[in-house]
Amino acid sequence: TKKEIRNAINKEVYIFAEKLGYQMSDDNDGSYVTFYKPDSDKRDDSIDYSRSYHTTVTYNWASEECKADADLIEEYAKQQQLKYQ
17-28 pLDDT, tens per residue? Predict the structure, then answer.
């Protein structure tokens, strides 16, 4: 089902983000999770990930590393989506 596919993609993305050094925070609303590096001293260096659309969002003033990681995570999610088409 679509829900099972979405969950499988998200699980792979969570594992990928963890390999990049991110931890995950879930606000339990079901739409977004936030990836953050536990050793970062800037709260603005976080990545919001849409569970439904498999896209990422960062602050405009986030570090370049954070923005690059967001792009990597989103590209990885797109690759995972292709597996299920």
Answer: 999 999 999 877
Q: ∠ CA(68), CA(26), CA(23), 5° rounding?
A: 45
Q: What is the 3-state secondary structure (H, E, C) of 15-46?
A: HHHHHCCCEEEECCCCCEEEEECCCCCCCCCE
Pairing of strands 46-50, 32-36: antiparallel
- In this prediction, the residues of the chain whose per-residue pLDDT falls under 50 are none
Q: In whole angstroms, what is the distance from residue 14 CA to residue 22 CA? A: 9
Distance CA 62, CA 19 (A): 20
